[in-house]
Specification:
The chain is mostly helical. The protein is built from four helices and two strands. The protein is 62% helix and 4% strand. The protein has a two-stranded antiparallel sheet. The chain is elongated, with a radius of gyration of 18 Å.
Length: 136
Amino acid sequence: MLNRLTDTLAFQSQALQLRAERQRLLASNIANADTPGYQARDIDFAQALRGAAGEAQGAALRTHAAHLGGDGGGAAAGGAGAWALQAQTNLDSNGVDMDRERAAFADNAVRYEATLRFVNGSVRNVLDAMKSHNAA
């Protein structure tokens, strides 16, 4: 039972770390919307999570820096980081589509919150189970 809880929490913590990194990248894209030549970056979350989960099987979660490439550009485990696809080109070669970035930012924030609530609920259930066992 404890192993199952530990595995679930490890997986969810990986998901939270990847969501936080994606949020950072999306915020960077939004902040650089007017920077000439800036190209938007993003993470393929599903691919990055599969890579992170595969790396962590039977081992503790590595640090945030181990999952992300050293280039600071959001290259996640397994090469999941990439340039975001451009919907249209701008005269200044800026690749940020503000509508897409804002929508992705909001979606990622909601999913981060949902994952966090799931983790909190799992911990609360275990604590409640331990309390009811001690009371008997």
